[in-house]
Amino acid sequence: MASLQVTDERAREDAIDERLVASFQRGNSHALSELYRRHGRRVESVARNVIGPSDELEDVVQEVFIELHRSLHRFRGDARFTTWLHRVTVNVALQHLRRGKRKGWLRWLGLDQVGNAATARVPAGDRQVEARETVRALYVALDAVSEKKRVVFTLYELEGLSLEDIAATVGTSVNTVKSRLHHARREIFGQLQQDGLLPTHTLQVVK
Amino acid sequence: MNATHENQADCPSEELLHLACDERSDFAAAERDAALAHAERCASCAERLQEVRRFRTLLLRTRVPGLGAEQWRSLDQRIGMLGSEPQPRGISAAARTYWGLTLAAAAVALFIGVDRFIESRKESLPVAMPPVVSAKAPTVVPLMTAESLTVRRVEGQVEVVAAAGKVVGPLAAGASLGIGSTLRAGAEGARIALPGTAELELLPQTEVRIDAADARDFFVRLRRGAVGLQVDKRQPGQRFAVLAGSYRAAVVGTRFVVRLGEDASVAVEVYEGAVRVDEANAPDDPRGETTVVVRPGRRWQVRGGEIVVGPIPAPGGSAQQLAPPVPRFDPEIEAEVRRLEAGDARPSHGARAAAPVARSASEPTRFAPDGLPIAPTPPEPQVRRVLIEVPPQQMTADEIARAKAAERARQR
């Protein structure tokens, strides 16, 4: 029963998105503002989880909607709008990462600083600092894996998307997603273990 | 918990441990329970499971900082503006068809044109083609640009260094002067005949870089030593130039020498016609404030920030290092140089020469620190001009430092 309600809610949201997209394609540019109001937070969340801590997150989100404005007239409704939006967001985020890599020495400087911070001793009890260092440690490890694995890992582990949604977003099969996820986990887990950056305690997940 | 280690073949893989700890995985409940039960009996697996749980804890605690309220407000505004902009329109099917056909027609026309061109080239080629390169062929140095100037004749040894710094080989007749390449004269100096009547003379150990070498402009940058340039005739719009330090001299249809001293001093000696010297940052700069016209038999020199114009010193003494070049092609010019060296500043080429200098050739003309002459300068003669200039972006760090020091000294 609950599952049916969720499905109904999802179908209703999809229908609203479709109407907004159709309105935009008929020439109503203001429909884009409504799509932003509905999905801006989702785009921001996906982008920040893929690229990690960055001062340019705001620009990346804006770039996603600029890309939307540019290419929404080509959206044919073959997939759900949110899946298409995730795909655009991931592509823009990856472009952002590639631009960062092309910066060469700037990138190296940035990584060096993050790496030093991640391996530094964190004063016990300072939860804010500890949380920040946790994020940095994870993204230092993420920088070492391939883009495909990084996307699957961040969308599943941090963004909480399902394997099916991720498969639709990156345009591959669920089994391929599982494989990439497994390899990403192994590499990142190994890196954090090797650097001694795993927390000393575990959290109990309450169902 | 039983701490004894079971058979390692029964131990779950790391992947299984991750799946067992992942609440969202589609791992079967029975398999999950089996893996966890195994870990309770196996000390090694219990340790591994604990590590995986720590990893999952790190993921659960990971919160990447998002946008702040201020950033969201800014973003709302920016996206709102985007929403009010007109949409980019896609290409309609009719337009796609039209442009597709147009491009196809253009491609076919291009193919036919290229094919005919190749056929016409084939017809014009001689039946028996001599080998393009042979082991015993004289060294002809192909340089960088298609639009480069070809050398008519070379006397003396000149080494060519490509723009990338690689020594290409000796310069020979027929070679092209590529932009950015450097010419280094040997111990005997060299003389290079360019197309037309232009000749470039490099004194011993002189080094110049080719900054422009095409049908319109010929600019060389003097890096060391002294260079002479003789241009008897030029086509309308042609410019010949030698760049030295941060100064520009302009001469066309004359013969002159530019020297760059070890102390960054620059000297321009004029043997025929007249030369305009000024400071400039680019070839097409308007005339600089310190414009000076140097007449035949006179030398313009800047040293330590002071500009002095006087007669060309005779060879020997302190001016030995600035001895004028000895022309090797034109006996008439050689005779004139000898006469000028003897102190006679009158030009022998009456038709090409500028008006005589108003002051005595032996009396140096001094200039104020702002570059303007202290004594009145004679009216500007009707002379043809050549530009000599140095774009600052092409100066080395050392040259920039020396130029700045000279500028400071001049301001003082």
Describe the protein.
The complex is a heterodimer of chains A (207) and B (412). Chain A is an all-alpha fold and 207 residues long. Chain A has helices at 2-25, 30-51, 57-71, 81-102, 105-119, 127-142, 147-158, 163-170, 174-195. Chain B contains seven helices and 17 strands. Chain B has helices at residues 14-21, 29-41, 43-61, 69-83, 93-124, 331-341, 397-411; strands at 149-150, 153-161, 167-170, 176-177, 182-193, 199-202, 207-213, 217-230, 239-244, 247-250, 255-260, 266-272, 275-279, 292-294, 298-303, 306-311, 365-366. In chain B, the strands form two sheets. Chain B has a 15-stranded mixed sheet that branches. The longest helix of chain B has 32 residues, at 93-124. At the A-B interface, helix 2, helix 3, helix 6 and helix 9 of A face helix 1, helix 3 and helix 4 of B.
Helical stretch count of chain A? 9
| Overall pLDDT metric of chain B | 67
**Stretches of chain A where pLDDT falls below 50 for ≥5 residues?**
104-124
Distance linking N and C termini of chain B: 90 Å
* Major sheet size, sense and barrel closure of chain B: 15 strands, mixed
Separate helix tally of chain B: 7
Sheet having the most strands of chain A: none
Greatest chain-chain contact: A-B, 50 and 39 residues
Return the structural class of chain B. alpha+beta
Poorly predicted segments of chain B: 1-6, 124-147, 316-331, 343-394
End-to-end separation of chain A: 20 Å
Share of helical residues of chain A = over 70%
